[in-house]
Amino acid sequence: MASGTERPSEPPALTVERVTKTFGETVAVREASFEVERGEILALLGPSGCGKTTTLRLLAGFERPNDGEVRINGETVVDADVWQPPERRRIGMVPQDFALFPHLSVGDNIGFGLPNGHRAWWTKPTRRLRRAAAPQRVQEMLELVGLVGFADRFPHELSGGEAQRVALARALAPQPAAVLLDEPFSNLDQNLRASLRLAMRNILKAADTAAVFVSHHREEALSLADRVAVMRDGQIEQIGAPDDIYYRPETRFIGTFVGDANILPGETVGGGAQTELGFVVLSNSGSEASGQAIDILLRPEQLALKPCQDDGPDCANVISSEYYGHDQVVRVRLRSGIEVEARLRTEVVWHPDDPVDVIVLDDGIGLARENQ
Ligand code: ATP
Question: Whose CA is nearest to atom 26 of ligand 1?
Fold first, then answer.
């Protein structure tokens, strides 16, 4: 890489190396390894109980791993011999419920960990800490999160989105090496989420800090993060850019977890597979021999429909269609009985029983058969 923005000599803001955490018999996190650069946003995405929150807590120092190492800006904060408690790590936290101090103004909430070093805001407030803290930094943070003029308000006078931004400002105020966000949108109105995602991404980018956030929402992770680590049963199964994860999933679990997926049976043949929908090029085709039974993953938006002319037994049939305005999802039964979904524009509206041909628009992903 030779861009003007690269920082060649800088260690990653966060380095996690083969970290394992067990609770009794439960392996909550198994040999997790990843790095996050300054200015980068990483999402930990996975179903409930897969170890996302535990990973975040290991980074913050609320849990101690059984094995492995965590480095912050290249400095080891935990391994077999080293242990730095949370207040000594340069980490900011935005908890799920934001945990603003109800009796402190917005300005005092943001300034709570200031000005002397990185005092942890989650320690109990004392009179000594409640003195006016670094007004200039508080002002900078209010500007960063777009809440100039809110300094004297109290948490109960804020909307959910504003409270989230105050919590973010508080976490960023001491200039942490990384900020950790636990399900940052779960307490917010569904309609607000999409607009707040972009606002949060812009704030994190402007702050130029590393960020790790936990989510079980695929759209949230794909739209907010630079890279997504998909976890399952305590393990990171794949880590990559959102479009890698979405269009080049390495496992069936990832393919079906991160987006709607059609799975079609097929047989390998020269760089692709023969399926009921014809020959499909496989973007992950390797050197496998022809004639192997394989499954092919195609996203609903990779399929198109056209009217089937003869209305005969070779046609597929529309089963249902859901119209959303901006697009529609049409469910189709193929001749074999397999059902697929196509996500389509709405110039043509499809109706149940319409005879159709299904066209594959893009390369598919080959997945090993599960029972092989
Ligand atoms: P969710 O999305 O539901 O919050 P998660 O992916 O964040 O789930 P974790 O909270 O990290 O998952 O939990 C991972 C596993 O570790 C789960 O099986 C959970 O029950 C277990 N676990 C987490 N914390 C503890 C604890 N303090 N004591 C015992 N088991 C725990």
Answer: 23
Does residue 271 have its Cβ closer than 6 Å to ligand 1? Answer: no
**Cα(35)–Cα(300) distance, integer angstroms:** 32
Contact 202, 188 (CB under 8 A): no
Atom 10 (ligand 1) nearest CA? 53
Closest to 345 (Cα-Cα) out of 310, 313, 301, 314: 301
Task: Report pLDDT digits (tens) over 103-155.
Answer: 999 999 999 887 543 344 444 444 444 444 478 889 999 999 999 999 999 99
pTM: 0.88
The preferred substitution site among 25, 30, 44, 54 for testing ligand 1, maximizing ligand atoms within 8 Å of CB, is 54
Q: Ligand 1: does its nearest atom lie under 6 Å from the Cβ of 65?
A: no
Q: What is the pLDDT of residues 179-237, one digit of tens each?
A: 999 998 887 887 778 888 888 999 999 999 999 999 989 999 999 999 999 999 999 99
> How far is the CA of 29 from the CAs of 25, 78, 195, 199, 289, in angstroms?
12, 15, 32, 31, 37
Rounded to the nearest angstrom, the distance between the alpha carbon of 28 and the centre of ligand 1 is 6
